[in-house]
Protein 1
Amino acid sequence: MAFTHNHTRKVVLITGASDGLGLAAAKKYAQADFTTVLAGRSKEKLAKAVEAVRVAANIKESQADLKVYSLCFDLSDLDSVRRGVAEFLNLNIPLNILINNAGIFTTTREFTKASNIFEKTIMVNMVAPLLFTELLIPRMKESGGGKILIVSSNTHNPEQAVPLSKKKDTKRLILPLDNLDGSKEWDGQDFYAASKLADLWWAYVLADKLTNSEPRITVNAFCPGAVPSTSLAREFPWILRKIAPMIFPLLLSNVLTPEKAAEQYLAYGTDPKFALDNGFYYQRGSKDKSSDESHDMVKAKTVYNLACQASGLNDHQVAV
Ligand SMILES: NC(=O)c1ccc[n+]([C@@H]2O[C@H](COP(=O)([O-])OP(=O)(O)OC[C@H]3O[C@@H](n4cnc5c(N)ncnc54)[C@H](OP(=O)(O)O)[C@@H]3O)[C@@H](O)[C@H]2O)c1
C-alpha cells in the first residue's frame, strides 16, 4: 500500500497518551525515531502532549506535523471510537505498533450508552479498546504486520500482594461471568482489577486468533508496575492521591516513575528479545505468569464474544 509522504519511519499509536504512562511512552518512542500517534479524549490535553513529545524528542517545529500526530476520541462512546479509527485511517500512514494503554479507575458504578451487560470500567478498559484494535488490524496487515500491546495490571491477580485490597481471599474469582454489570456486587477496586483481567482474556484470545497471521501480528500484555504519580486515581480523595506516592514504595517492590515504566513500553515494542513473542504477559521487563483465572480460556472466549457483541463485531466472535 502506498502511504502518505512515502512514510518510511515505523509508526506507534498509543491510546491514553495525553497523560501519565502513555505520554511518557510516547516521548520514548519519539526519541527512538518512531512516528508517534497520541490518542486521547481531550483536544486541549492532546495539543499540550504533542508539544511535550516534540520538545522531548528534539523535533523541529517544521517537522512536527510529519512525526507527531494526535487522535481525539472517547473510549466511553463506541461511535466516537469508530470515528477515531476512521480518522487514523485517513492519515494514510502505516501502523506498526499499537499500544492499548488508556484506562480508568472509577469510584462509582456507571454504564455507557452502548451496553448494560458490561459496566463502564470494563467497557472503557477492554470492550472499546477491543473494537478500536480489531478495526485497525487490516491497516497493520497493510503495514507488513506489527505488534499489539495491551496494558493490563498486576491487580488482576489476587495471588500477588495487593496491600490495599479489602478482600484477602487470594483464591477468589475476580470476575464471575454473572456479574459483568456489577449488579450482584460492585466495588471500584474490584472492577478495575476485573477490567485488567478482561484485558488479559482479550490478549490471549486475540493472540490465539492471530497465531498464524501472515504478515505476522503478535499480541502481548503487560503490567507497567506501580506508578502512583500518574492521574489514574484522579477520582479518589486528594489526600489519598497525595500520600500514595509516599506510601506505595514502602508496601510494593515495583514502584516506578512514569519515565522508568515507559522504558518497558519501548522495550516490549522494540527489543528483539520480545520480537517473536505472542500471547505472553510481561512484568518488570520480562515474561511472567498471569493469574490462573486469566488462563481460563472458556471464560476468556465467552467474555471476548460478549465484547464483540457489545461493540457490533458479531462476525469476529470465536468458537468457545
Ligand atoms: N499507574 C499505575 O500504577 C498503573 C499500574 C498498572 C497498570 N496501569 C495501567 O496503565 C494505563 C495508563 O494509566 P496511567 O496510570 O497513565 O493513568 P492516567 O494518568 O490516568 O492516564 C490515562 C490515560 O487514559 C486516557 N483516558 C481515560 N479515559 C478515557 C476515555 N474515556 N477515552 C479516551 N481516553 C481516556 C486519559 O485521558 P485524559 O488525559 O483525558 O484523562 C489519559 O490519557 C492504564 O491502562 C492503567 O490501568 C497503571
Protein 2
Amino acid sequence: MNSAVFCADIGGSFIKFGVSRRSGEVEECGKVPTPVASWQEFVGAMQYLIDTYGTDLPAGTPLAISTAGLVSPQTGEMLATNIPAFTGHSLANDLSVALERPVTAANDADCFALAEAHAGNAQHHSVVAAIILGTGVGGGLVINGQLVRGHGGVTGEWGHGAITRTELTLAGKHYAVPRLRCGCGQTGCLDMLGGARGMERLHQHFHHQENTSLDIVTGWLKGHPDCALTVNAWLELVAEPLALLINILGPSRIVAGGGLASAKELIAALDEKVRGGVLHTYTEPLLIPGKFLTDGGLVGASVLGRMQS
Ligand SMILES: [Zn+2]
C-alpha cells in the first residue's frame, strides 16, 4: 500500500510531524510545541499541522501517532501519560472524530520496535524485542511483523519488576544494590537503575559524584576506575533481567533504543554479558543498537498507520 499516511510523534515538549508516502519512510516536515494542558488546543495543533503539510493529500488521509505512555488496545485510553490534556480521552477515537479521518496510536517503544522490525536493524527476524535504555527502561515486541499489544497495552515492559540481586561483587568488593521507589508504585524496579538516570544514580550511590551518563560512559571507555565500577555494576544489573526476557521470548534479534543505545561500545558490552547468561547459545551478536535512534516514533507510526488503514 503506497497511499500516504500522516505521522506524529507526540512528546511532552514537542509534536514532530511528518508525511509517509511509503512504508518505513517518513519525510519530517513540522515541529510545534505540545499543548500539554488543553485537549482543544492539542486538537487545534494537529489540525494546523495537517492543513499546513497535507495540502496535496486527499481528504481523510489517515493519521498514525507515537506517544509516551501506554495506549490501551481495548479502549484506546491513555495510561501513564505525561500529557495532562490526554487524561480521560481515547486518543485515537477522539482525534478521529475531531479530525475526520482514521487515527491510530501506539506507545513510542512499540513504534520503535515496529520501525526496527519493518525497516531497521531487525528486518527479516520473526521475533523482535526492542529495549529502550532511555531516561528509564522500556520495550516492545513484534512477532512475524505484528506488534504484540498485550492486556492493557502492557507488553515488553521489562523495566518494572524488582531486581532480585541485593548485592554485587565487583573487583573483589561487595556492594549493596540500592532499592529505590519507582513511579509505578513498586520498590526496586530495574527502571530506576537501568536507564541513563539509573546509571547516574548508581554512580552517585558508589562514588557520591554527580555525573551525566555520557560522562560515565566516556570515563569507562577511557579506563577511569570509578566509571568502570559504575558501568560494570550497570551491566550486571541490566543483563540479568534481560537474560530472563530472552529466555522467555526467544528473540533472534534485540534492538536497543533510547539515549544509551548511542553508546555502541556499551551495547556491545551488554550483548556479550547477556549472551553469557542465556540458555540458547548465540554465536552472533544478539543485541545491537537500532537504526532509528531519533526517528523511531515517526517511522514506526508510518508502519502502524498502514497496518490499520
Ligand atoms: Zn516500576
Protein 3
Amino acid sequence: MLSDKKRECCQIIWNAAQPAVRGPCLRPQCYTANGADYRGTQNQTSQHAGKPCLFWNETFEHPYNTLKYPNGEGGLGEHNYCRNPDGDVSPWCYIAEHEDGIYWKYCEIPSCRMPGNLGCYKDHGEPPTLTGTSETSNKLTIQACISSCRSQQFKFAGMESGYACFCGNNPDYWRYGEAASTECNSVCFGDHTQPCGGDGRVILFDTLIGACGGNYTSATAVIYSPDFPDTYGTGKVCYWTIQVPGASQILFSFVLFEIKDATDMVELLDGYTYHVLARFNGKNRPPHTFNISLDFVILYFFSDEINQAQGFAIRYRAVKDNVHQNKIAANQTLSEKRNEHTNFSINTARSSKILYVITTSPSHPSSSMPGNVISKWTIYSLTALLILSVTAILAKIFLHVLCTQCGTLHFSVTAAGEIWSIFYRPSTSISIFKKQLRT
Ligand SMILES: [Ca+2]
C-alpha cells in the first residue's frame, strides 16, 4: 500500500483539484494505456527478482528483433529494454526459455502508467472495489467503461476480466490492496490492444480521461483527446479551460500527438480574448514543448467525419511569477518575438527545449498565425450578445449595399425582413451564417 506522502505527491501530478488517492509518485513515462510509447530502460520483467530481458538484436528466432525492425520501429534497438512493438496490452520482452515453454513475459514497470490510470487493484466482490454501478459488455473498451461511468457522474471507472465495467466514487478502492500491473493484463473484449483488468483484478481510471471538455485549475495536469485511449470520435468539438490564477506562464508539452489529417485540429486560445495562439493538425505538428505567457488558456479540439486517429495527450505546468523568471520571459519575448510566427508555422521537429514565448499584447496580429484566413474579431463573452446584434444589423446593411454579386459566397442578399445571425467559431474567428428565423 502506498504511503500518504506518495499519495499526496501524485495528486499533484495528475490533478490537484480532485481529492482522490492517486497512483505511485513516479514521473510518468507512458501516456498510452498499453505502454506502446514506453522508451525507458527497465531491462527485466520486474524490478523485484524479475527475469532478465534478452537483447532485441539477439532474438532472431522470434518475430521481433532488430533484423526485422532495423529502424527503431516500436522502440526496438540494440538493447534489452521492455517494449511493446506489437500493440499488446503492456510492454514485454523475450526471456531465456522456461521449462514450460514460456519465452516472453510482460514487464512490471511502475513508471509506465499513464496519468489518470490509478492502478491495478484486487477485487473480492462483496462489496466490489468500486461500489457504484456495474455492467458487462463483449465490446468493452477502456473508454466505453469510462464514458458510461462519467455519464453517471462517477469519478472512477474500473475494468475487470476484459468485459466487466464498474463505476464508483468511493476513495477506498484500494482497501483490498493494490496488485502488480502485470495482473491487469487481460485484453479488453472490444479492443485487444488495451488492458481491461484481470481475474479478480480491476484496473482503475479517472473518468476525466477522454472527456470532451473540462475545467482545469490545478498547477499541472494531463489532458487527453476525447475518447482516449480509444481513437477520437467523429464530429467532436471540445473545449478545456486551463486557468491557474497567479501563473505568469503555462508550459505545454504534447507527450502524444497522433492526428493524421489536416482538418482535425488542436488549438490553443487566449482565455481572455479567444485569439487563436496556435493551431496544430496532421500537417502542422506541434513542437514538443512551448509556453504561453498567460494564466488562462483554452484548449480546443475539432474532428471532422473521416480519418480518426489516436489523438493527443498534452501536459501543462503553470509557472508562478518571480523576478528571475520575469527577466527570462521578457528576454525571450524580445529576442524571439520577431520570429515566433515563422517558428510556429515551420518548426515541426520535436524538441525538448522551449522554443518561444507566445505574447498576447492587444496589438498582437493574430491573423498572421497559420491557418487564419478570415480576419479576426474579438468578442468578449459578457458583451457578445450586444455585439452580435449590432453586427448583424451592420452586416445586413453592408450586404445590401455592397454585395449584389455575392454568388460565390455561401450566402446571398436576403429579402427584407429576414434576420441574420452571426455565430462565433473559435477556429475561424467569425463566420457568418444566414439563418432565416421563421416564427
Ligand atoms: Ca478527420
